[in-house]
Amino acid sequence: MKxxxxxxxxxxxxxxxxxxxxxxxxxxxxxSEVGIGAGSAIYRGDxxxxxxxxxxxxxxxxxxxxxxxxxxxTPYFSARASFTWIRLVGDDYTYNKDNPNRNPVQFHRNLHxxxxxxxxxxxxxxxxxxxxxxxxxRPFLTPYLTLGLALVAHxxxxxxxxxxxxxxxxxxxxxxxxxxxxxxxxxYAKPYSLITLAIPVGMGLRWKLNQRLNVSAELSFRYTFTDxxxxxxxxxxxxxxxxxxxAAVLSDRRYEATDARTGQSRTYELASLTSVSTNxxxxxPGNDIYILTQLAxxxxxxxxxxxxxxx
Length: 311
What we know:
Elements: H1 2-26, E1 31-44, E2 62-72, E3 77-91, H2 92-96, H3 104-109, E4 112-127, E5 141-153, E6 156-159, H4 162-165, E7 172-174, E8 195-208, E9 213-224, H5 245-251, H6 267-272, E10 289-300
Antiparallel strand pairs: 1-2, 1-10, 2-3, 3-4, 4-5, 4-6, 5-8, 6-7, 8-9, 9-10
């Protein structure tokens, strides 16, 4: 009678140990990391149409710099909060100067902008390789996907013509208060908001540099809920309806002889156009997007390692 009891006891102890080892192997001690990163920023919208991806995707790449806080919750899932400062630029002239007749309407329109975005985002991260229970034993190389929601503050600007600002390149001025498509005037739409939402979705690769440092490379797309990162969306307004001369000038730049952003002459290219724009449309409906690349360094915040519960 004692032998079966001893055998059952050994089996129970063995199963308990196996279960405990499985729990330890497939669990994770939650830990956090902070990071800083920088990279490029690419705008796609009315001044660099998404539909024309066969053309160079990055005629005017600019920059971004960001801070991150990541909490690793399970072997596969993490949560990240980030703040990113982003510079976007678009220019009809630069995008089409090599071949004005490729998009003659867009070249003739001659609009440009720059926009500094401040983005606060919360994202979920799915890792294709699971974390080990101890952060210092994490995988050397980990591919991952991200999906989140971002709050974005923005403020599109353009250079005013030199005839209004004096010699040299014109000064940058805020476009939203001018209502370049008549916003805020009787019979026109309300001014667009300088706060919008965006959906960040991306992919990345993380390297374990040492026990305390990670390095990551990430490519992400931001679909925004505004068509006004570039201040371009609707129809040309009647100039007489606008609030002042500066608003009228910045609303319609089709007949300027230079590209105000760069100061380059457009005379030769304008003469070569096979058709010019008499269209009442200034822009086309469709929300803007931007694309970020970022290389980041992450520091793992030390965490206490608890002994596993073998009971």
